[in-house]
Amino acid sequence: MTAVQGTLEPEHILFRAKLANVRPLVNMLKTISFRPRARCSINSDGLVFTVEEAQCLVAQVFFRSELFTTFSYDEQLAKHLNNQEQVGFETNDSQDDEASDMTQIVLPLDNLIECLTLFYGPSGTSSGNSQSGSHTTSSLLNAGNPGDLRGATTAVIGFNGLGADFELMLEERGTISMCRLATFMPEPPVDLKFSHVPITQQLIIRSEWLRDAFNELDPTSEAVSISIARTEPHFRISTIGDSGSTDMTYSNSERILDSFFCNEDQENQYKLSLILKSKQALAMSDKTKIRINQRGFLSFQFMVPTAADMSFVNFIYAPLISADEPAAADAAAARA
Amino acid sequence: MRLRAEVTNSNLLLRIVQSIDKLTKSAILKLTPDKLHIIVITDMDSGLQLWSDIVVEALFEDYQIESNFNNEIYLEFNIDNLQRALRSTQGGGALGVTMKLVKKLGGLPVLSLIIRSQSATGREITLCQDVPVRLLSAEQMDAIREPLVPEGQIHIMMPPLNNVRSIAERMKGMGDRVAVSANRNGEMNVRVANDLVDITTYFRGLETMSYDTTTQETSTDGGGGTGRLSSETFTAVVDMKNFLKFLQSHHVAPKNVMCCISEHHALIIYVYIGSAGYTGAAAMHDSSCGSLTYFIPVRQI
C-alpha cells in the first residue's frame, strides 16, 4: 500500500516527513551517538537508526511514523530504486519481500544531531533542557508538554534515493535553516542474529534499579558478569576490578522485577565499557527488558516514553565467552 | 600630558572591553576631548580589524584631558589586564571609580583605576588597579589608519545578534569559512559547508538601506525602475573565526547592527551602542553613543 503522496512537490518523493518538535528525535539519537556514523533504515513503519561497535555491540533507535506530524514513504519507488541498485542489501531470509521496499543509507550521525540542535542555543546548552538523568523521564520526550514546545524547532526531513543528500529543513520562530547531509552506501550490516536462537531468560526491571547498579559497577573491571537463575538470587550483576568486586543481586519480587522468565540458569560476561555505552538510553527509559538467548547474547530493550506511547532503544551484545562456544568461533558465526 | 576622569559607566566600558577580549593580546586606546576610541588590529594584511568610538559623556564625568597633540592621548594596552581591572569596579558597594594616567616609579606609565567602595561593615575601602600602558607618539598614531575598502554593494540590518550567535556557534564545527549573503529584499543567508554537511540559515524581513541608486544593476528582470527591489544577492566569504569574533560584540547589547557587504573585499559591520546598553523599547529613546566597526576581510582562496 503506497503511503499518501503529499501535495508537497510535483515530482516523486521517496521519503518526506514533518516533525513538530525535534527534541524527542534528538534525545533518542543522542543515546546511540557514540559512533560517528549510523545506518538509517526507512520504510512505512518509520525510521530505524543503527550503530555498531567492535562487531559485538549493535544499538538501534526506533522512531515510528506515528511520532511524525506527517509521514510519506513511497514503497513502489523504493522497490524500484532498490532493484536498480542491485547492490548487496541485507537479505533477511524470513522477510525477503519486506526488505526490498526498505531504503537504507549511512549518515554522519554526529552532524545530523548538530543540525537538529541548530537552534538550541550557544555552547551546547539546550534552551530549557536542563533535567538531570534522575528526573522523571517523561518530561524529556513528551512533545505535548507546553514547556518543551516553547522555542521548539520543527523539522521537515526528506530523502530522494541513494546518492542524494539527506535533507533537513528546520524552522524556529521564523528563521529557517536548510541542511544537507552526505549519504553513503551501507555496508553489510553486523547482525548479531539475536532472535535466531531461543530466548532462555527474560525479565523486565524498573530502569531506576538498573541505573543504580550501573553506577555501582567498578569501571576498572574489564568485564561485567550477568547471571540469571531459577533460584535465588534470580538476577545478579557483578564485576571484579582493581579496587575489588561489586555484586548486585535482585530477587524476583514484584517491587523490582515486573516480569521474570528463566528456562535455564546462565551466567555470561560482557565487556563493561560497551555495556556502559547504554547508560544514556537507560537514563531516558522507564523500564528495561533484559533478554538472553541460548548462546548468551544479551539484549537490553529500553522503553522510552514518547508523546502518548512508548518508543524503544535496543542494545544487543555478544558475550565475551559464549555459553556454548568459544568466543572467536561464535563471533564468526554471528557475522555469517 | 594629563588624563583624569570619573568613570560613571564602568559597566559599559567593561562590556566594550569584553567584546574585544580574545580578539588579540593588545589594543590601542585613543582619547580625545570628545571621544574614546578603541582600535584592535589582529593582523595588518589579512585579519580582522575593529575601530570603535564612543562619546566621553557616555562613560565619564568631569573628564579632563591635556596633551601637546591637540589634547589627544594615545595608549597601547593589554586587553586582558584592562578587563580584569574593570571587573573589580563591578559589584555592590562600589561608590566611585576614578581613572588617571600616572607615571609610576621608574617612569613607566599606567592607566590607574581608583575604586572606592564600601565594605559590609560600612568602612570605605580604596582599591587601586594599575594597567601598564605604552604611550604612542602622534607619528605612530598617524600611521594607524582605517582600512580602505571599496564601497559596499548592500547595507542590511542584521537580525538580533544572539540569534545569529547561537546558530554560528553550532555551525562553527562544520567549516573554517562562512558565506554571508544578502539582497535588497531584506534577506540574509549564512552558510557553512564541508564534505559531509551543508547548512544555510535564512533570515528574512530585514531592513536594507537604500544605498546608492546610481549603482543599480541594469540587468535586473524587466529593467529597473526606481522602487523596484533587486533580488541580486551579494556574498562575502570570511573566516569563521573572524565571524565569531565579531559576534562577541553581543556583550554591549547593541541597539542595531548593520552589515555592509563589499564583495571580494570585506564584510564591514557596524555595531551601534546605546549608552544604557539596552535594546528594545529603552533603546528607542536613547540615541547611539558609539559604535564598534568591524572590518572582516574576505578570504582569499
TrEMBL record, chain A:
Keywords: Hydrolase. Its EC number is 3.1.11.2. It is an enzyme of class 3 (hydrolase). It comes from Coemansia aciculifera. This is SsDNA endodeoxyribonuclease. It comes from the Eukaryota.
TrEMBL record, chain B:
This is Checkpoint protein hus1. It comes from Coemansia aciculifera. The gene is hus1.
